[in-house]
Amino acid sequence: MVVEEALYCKERKWDIIAPAENFFSEFDKTYAKYFLETRKRKGIISRSLWETAERGRSLSEIEKKERNPRLLPKVMRGKFKSVIIIFDDKVAIISSLRELSAILIQSKEIRDTMEALFEGLWITAGEYR
């Protein structure tokens, strides 16, 4: 499973773009809990770009430190339909449950290209409050 590959990243660091409604928010709650707990146990930190705040849910200071969330500019809202996770020399793209597809690309060049796009969004993203 592509999402499992991300949990075993060597660098323990992700850059992630996640739409408000995504695989993790739609999938089995038991798996989502396992995924978050495993991520925390493995010490994976991220820089996260989100469309909106998580439906009124506030993050603890620890969660903010682990996830480093920022909000995408308004012009980008609704443009992402899939979760993108950039890690190690890989890029994982995970669709919603409606399409139920995922792809894992292992390529330093493609990873670097996606990282450049992420950086451009990161510097224009707003603070998560």
Q: What's the N-to-C terminus distance?
A: 33 Å
Shape: globular
Instruction: Work out the helix count.
Output: 5
Q: What is the strand arrangement across the widest sheet? A: 6-5-4-1-2-3-7
> What does the average pLDDT come to?
89
Which percent range fits the helix content? 25-40%
Roughly how many Å is the radius of gyration? 14 Å
String of helices and strands: HEHHEHEEEEHE
Report the β-strand fraction as a percent range.
15-25%
Describe the sheet with the most strands.
7 strands, mixed
Q: Which structural class is indicated by helix and strand composition? A: alpha/beta
How many β strands by DSSP?
7
Q: What ranges have pLDDT less than 50 throughout 5 or more consecutive residues?
A: none
Overview features:
single chain, 129 residues, alpha/beta, seven-stranded mixed beta sheet, 5 helices, 36% helix
Describe this structure in words.
The protein is an alpha/beta fold and 129 residues long. The chain contains 5 helices and 7 strands, in the order H-E-H-H-E-H-E-E-E-E-H-E. Strands 6-5-4-1-2-3-7 form a 7-stranded mixed β-sheet. A hairpin with a 2-residue loop joins strand 4 and strand 5. The N and C termini lie far apart (33 Å).
Brief account:
This protein has helices at residues 2-7, 23-26, 29-41, 61-67, 108-124; strands at 13-18, 45-50, 69-71, 83-87, 90-94, 102-106, 126-127. The protein is 36% helix and 25% strand.
